[in-house]
Design brief:
Layout: E1 15-20, E2 25-30, E3 80-83, E4 88-91, E5 94-95, H1 96-102, H2 105-114, H3 120-132, H4 139-145, H5 153-165, H6 173-176, H7 189-215, H8 231-240, H9 258-271, H10 278-287, H11 293-304, H12 312-323, H13 329-337, H14 356-372, H15 377-390, H16 392-396, H17 404-413, H18 421-441, H19 489-499
Antiparallel strand pairs: 1-2, 3-4, 4-5
Helix pairs in contact: 1-9, 2-18, 3-7, 5-7, 5-11, 7-8, 7-18, 8-9, 9-14, 10-11, 10-18, 11-18, 12-17, 14-17
The structure holds acetyl coenzyme *A (ACO).
Length: 507
């Protein structure tokens, strides 16, 4: 018997062997970066079995089903890495802890978009381009004034990004040709310049649009972005300038409080990117059909708005208010365990230990409270946090605090209204969105439209039935006919008037 080679000297076969038990055929699927290509399975074909429907298309290849993208890698990326089991988050290889402690938001933005930490002159160029693009056309004031007095700031912001696109025809592939941005991947410098100009605009104007969505509800005039301030200082200035209760400015100097501006800067760093989260995926999905980047960002904004994504920080505050005081924490946790309540700010699809951002935020919270005063909700939050981390229900399910457990408390202490919390998430996340969008546009293999498949389970072919041969019972089942809606008295009156005497009991 020959000598057995040590495992390190064995040439490993990077492939997967698959047997299709329907046909007995064997396939070898290549493994690259510990992944298999879903498209390979299209070549695995079989004749229909007794339980197959024509719509299962067995002869056209096997499909890969992944409801909710639980285990599908949709892109190759070099931007952000998360190790959810070990609580690790890195931007371009740099640990989030180092960036939060030593960097600034625009420096981190440069890193995320361009791949390396900038030199002093590179940072200065990027900063001045972003801040230069802060001001917005005065027509935009009319756009914001067209909203109702109680419009949600996220409705305004989402619409505002799409609206912004209407100004820049030169950034619209529908008008300029579909390779407007993708030809940058082939070394076209004008295309690259055009792309970066839109990136400066999007980051520069994100704070301006967010501040406009904030001020319109207060009936205050809009503020032109100031000069001589950092990105986050400028944002706070635009929000609070000439505010009679301006707790953010030091000695009415109009310069935002340095501790609060720094805290927001750190929060922005922590929220800037999180690899293929729901909103970044939405930006790429939308961007894959090559619309202008403002439309793609508007789509991302809409995705972030949902309470399962950017709305959790608000849910934490509502939860803490409903608990009321530390003494009610045990009863609340019992209700969570009985699935009568949800512990917002705990648990994560990727992190199976504490979200590394939650430790940084906890520290920032103390610094903010030293300026704003301690939020009484903090005692309830601490009691909840400590009790959950000792409770076997949460420990056994690896449920730990995520970034949103503490961020809402900071925003509240800084005086932001609860419905503005998602806006504070969008502004920094614009950077992550444009970093992913730029990476996709520069892909050497070009941009493929993101067009997933489905498993069709609906009716097979059937023949049309004439209207007069159908009864109300033709289709039965929940959701299979339009709901019956209660109308207001106004609608009823209008219908009565229109009916001109032909009133039926159904009106
Ligand atoms: N409270 C109580 N139980 C929970 C919680 C929670 N917050 N989160 C998960 N669980 C339980 C589930 O009921 C499930 O229990 P089971 O196995 O007995 O059925 C188990 O833990 C596994 O949870 P999943 O639902 O499979 O986890 P999933 O990855 O699908 O969901 C999510 C992750 C949506 C974040 C979930 O943990 C949650 O709803 N958390 C609260 C909302 C929240 O804080 N969201 C912010 C996320 S961070 C961000 O987006 C910026």
């Amino acid at each position: 018997m020959g000598k057995q080679l040590p495992a390190s000297e064995l040439k490993r076969d990077e492939s997967l062997r698959v047997v299709d038990n329907r046909t007995g055929k064997e396939y070898t699927v290549p493994i690259t970066h510990n992944s298999i290509p879903a498209n390979f399975f299209k070549g695995i074909r079989a004749a229909p079995g007794p339980n197959d429907r024509p719509e299962d298309e067995t002869e056209r290849g096997l499909r890969v089903a992944d409801r909710g993208f639980l285990n599908t890698a949709v892109i190759e990326s070099r931007i952000t890495y998360i190790d959810g089991d070990n609580g690790i988050l890195r931007y371009r290889g740099y640990p989030i802890e180092q960036l939060a402690e030593r960097s600034s938001f625009l420096e981190v933005s440069y890193l995320l978009i361009y791949g390396a930490l900038p030199s002093p002159s590179q940072l200065s160029h990027f900063t001045s381009e972003v801040l230069l693009h802060g001001p917005i056309h005065s027509d935009a004031e009319g756009f914001f004034r067209s909203f109702r007095y109680d419009a949600h700031p996220m409705s305004m912001l989402t619409s505002a990004f799409a609206y912004l696109g209407s100004y820049y025809g030169e950034a619209n592939p529908s008008l300029q040709g579909q390779d407007l941005f993708t030809k940058a991947a082939k070394g076209d410098p004008a295309a690259l310049q055009n792309m970066d100009r839109q990136i400066f605009r999007l980051i520069g104007k994100a704070t301006t649009l967010a501040a406009m969505a904030y001020r319109i509800r207060q009936g205050r005039d809009f503020v032109v972005p100031p000069t001589g301030m950092s990105y986050t200082e400028s944002f706070l200035y635009q929000l609070d300038h000439l505010s009679p209760t301006d707790h953010l400015s030091e000695s009415h100097s109009n310069k935002p409080h340095p501790v609060l501006a720094k805290a927001l800067d750190i929060l922005f760093i922590l929220h800037a990117d999180h690899e293929m989260n729901a909103s970044s995926t939405t930006v790429l999905q939308t961007g894959s059909s090559l619309p202008d980047p403002f439309s793609a960002v508007a789509a991302g904004c809409a995705s972030l708005y949902g309470p399962l994504h950017g709305g959790a920080n608000e849910a934490v505050i509502r939860m803490l208010l409903s608990i009321g005081s530390p003494k009610n924490v045990p009863a609340f946790l019992e209700a969570v365990k009985k699935r009568q309540k949800v512990l917002s700010g705990f648990g994560h699809r990727v992190y199976k230990t504490s979200d590394p951002r939650s430790f940084i935020i906890r520290k920032v919270a103390d610094e903010v409270f030293a300026v704003t005063g301690r939020d009484p909700l903090l005692d309830t939050a601490m009691a909840l946090h400590d009790a959950a981390l000792k409770d076997d229900y949460f420990v056994s399910r690896k449920l730990a605090p995520n970034v949103d457990f503490w961020s809402g408390l900071i925003y509240r202490a800084m005086g932001f209204p609860m419905d503005f919390f998602p806006v504070l998430f969008v502004v920094p996340r614009v950077v992550g969105w444009v970093a992913h969008w730029r990476q996709m546009m520069l892909s050497p293999s070009g941009v493929k439209i993101w067009r997933p498949r489905q498993l069709y389970l609906g009716p097979s072919t059937r023949d049309y039935v004439p209207l007069d041969e159908r009864t109300d019972a033709f289709q039965v089942g929940v959701g299979m006919e339009p709901s019956v809606i209660e109308h207001s008295g106004m609608t009823k009156r209008r219908k009565l008037a229109e009916a001109a005497g032909k009133v039926t009991s159904k009106l």
